[in-house]
Amino acid sequence: MKKVSLLGSTGSIGTQTLDVIHANAEHFSVVGLACGTNIALAREQITTFRPEIVSVAHAADAKMLQEEFGRSITFCHGVDGLVEVARWQEADVVVTAVTGAVGLVPTLAAIESGKTIALANKETLVTAGHLVMAAARKHNVAIIPVDSEHAAIFQCLNGESRTTVDRLILTASGGSFRDRTRAELAGVTVEQALAHPNWSMGAKITIDSATMMNKGLEVIEAHWLFDIDYDKIDVVIHQESIIHSMVEYVDRNVIAQLGTPDMRVPIQYALTYPDRLARPQTERLRLHELGTLHFAKLDTRRYPAMKFAYDAGRAGGTMPTVLNAANEVAVAAFLQGKISFLQIEEMIERALTEHTRMDHPTLEEIQAVDHEVRKKLQSVCS
Ligand SMILES: NC(=O)C1=CN([C@@H]2O[C@H](COP(=O)(O)OP(=O)(O)OC[C@H]3O[C@@H](n4cnc5c(N)ncnc54)[C@H](OP(=O)(O)O)[C@@H]3O)[C@@H](O)[C@H]2O)C=CC1
Ligand SMILES: CC(=O)[C@@H](O)[C@H](O)COP(=O)(O)O
Ligand SMILES: [Mn+2]
């Protein structure tokens, strides 16, 4: 029986993780849950899964739930609460499924406590990949990718030495505006941007997918997870999201991982790794029904966010921290109707241009840069 702490339990990945756990109750139990403000759903999850510790965003909600559920469950709140759930003694595996760089400190806490990490929260690796991977090496902790592309690459690599890898090829759906020109992006609405063609996901990642920043963040995520140089990471547009990613080896063998687009598949694999469990709940892939799969070259003039991400990743130091923080603020501002879709890119580009890179930043330096970028951009948006 693996005991799971789940950060971001009320979100898209969080609820699908609980689906997987519920369907495999003889293999997994939930010892910790952490979420933000969706208290109604948190209440249902607590009732169903009876965790030992729960964290929510606000103190008042934690107090209310403590009174409702009594002292047999520990309730806490805020970032400290996320950290408590992440390092809860009983947990074997921590699923990191909060959105954004708020996941960094809890992820480091889980690693320092020796927990296996099932990592969905890509922003953590983007903002401080060098710290996270160094901590994982130091504490001999496995980071198992949940993100579909990285779960695919992880399986295609199958433990093979990275010296035989010529290229990682990440697939990108093209997002909600794949078939629009740049000129047609002026004036697009939040509702249109949130209509992802293949995946039902949280709002932030769905907007990232529409700007292609999601793939940019994933390139940086792949760099850290698989210790591969940026020159060896390519992206191809594949509108069906059936091939989740590929590895090309030096001998020109290309291994791809395919499957119907259902995040419960990589979530389950991250939880069962190195074993596999049957998953009859997910539709079988029927290629003859699909008929054709499409591939197209990604044009960075159409998707400048890709260039920002490659440039920030290659520059290293605090540049990816700036990229991520600026993107988080810009996407939130777009979702709140404060800026237009195309202004997301403008804000990120300006933040990157105005920043002077710091090399080998410490956690405190990363937090300071993250804070500074957010403060500056939030004042522009309000
Ligand atoms: N959705 C997907 O299919 C995929 C997602 N990912 C990655 O997984 C992560 C989660 O994505 P997704 O599930 O879509 O996001 P959602 O927005 O659906 O869910 C986010 C979760 O994080 C919680 N949360 C957000 N901020 C805080 C905070 N400050 N403190 C505590 N909890 C917080 C939310 O709580 P509440 O709602 O209660 O406020 C919610 O439970 C992201 O990093 C994303 O990039 C990667 C691949 C695929
Ligand atoms: C399901 C998943 O892993 C998402 O990150 C997905 O990849 C988003 O799709 P695109 O970014 O390719 O549109
Ligand atoms: Mn992905």
Give a verbal description of the structure:
The protein has helices at 12-23, 39-49, 59-69, 78-86, 104-112, 122-138, 148-157, 190-193, 203-211, 213-226, 264-272, 287-290, 304-315, 319-335, 341-354, 363-381, and strands spanning 2-7, 28-34, 53-56, 74-77, 93-96, 116-119, 143-145, 165-172, 233-237, 243-249, 254-258, 296-297. The longest helix is centred in the C-terminal third of the chain and has 19 residues, at 363-381. Helix 4 packs parallel to helix 5 (104-112), helix 6 runs antiparallel to helix 14 (319-335) and helix 10 packs parallel to helix 13. The radius of gyration is 20 Å and the shape is globular. Helices cover 47% and strands 15% of the residues. The strands form two sheets. A seven-stranded parallel β-sheet has the order 4-3-2-1-5-6-7, with helices on both faces. The protein folds into two domains: 2-141, 3-Layer(aba) Sandwich (Rossmann fold), CATH 3.40.50.720; 150-261 and 283-381, Orthogonal Bundle (Rna Polymerase Sigma Factor, Chain: A), CATH 1.10.1740.10. By secondary structure, it is of the alpha/beta class. It starts with a strand and ends with a helix. The chain is built from 16 helices and twelve strands. Bound molecules: NADPH dihydro-nicotinamide-adenine-dinucleotide phosphate (NDP), 1-deoxy-D-xylulose-5-phosphate and manganese (II) ion. 1-deoxy-D-xylulose-5-phosphate is lined by residues 147-149, 172-173, 175, 199, 205, 209, 214-215, 263.
